[in-house]
Design goal:
By secondary structure, the chain is mostly helical. It has two helices and no strands. The longest helix has 29 residues, at 7-35.
């Protein structure tokens, strides 16, 4: 059975996903900063994960607010 979702519910789901991605990005940023001095490999891994969540945030921002991250050039 296919779940039919109206536009308001879809917007709420996207906003929840964005909030989750933002929380994860902050957590991985903090982890990367904490590991920077003592564990460069761990810090690098955490930085890559943080970047992945930044990309997710940019995509969701573009869905929620088109043009928010418009390229300047």
């Amino acid at each position: 059975m296919t779940d039919v979702v109206d536009s308001d519910e879809l917007l709420r789901r996207i906003q929840r996903g964005r909030a989750c991605a933002e929380q994860e990005e902050r957590a991985w940023r903090a982890r990367s900063d904490a590991l920077a001095a003592g564990d460069p490999d761990g810090a690098r891994d955490a930085a890559v994960r943080r970047l992945a969540y930044e990309v997710v945030l940019r995509v969701l921002d573009e869905i929620l607010t088109p043009g928010r991250h418009a390229e300047v050039g």
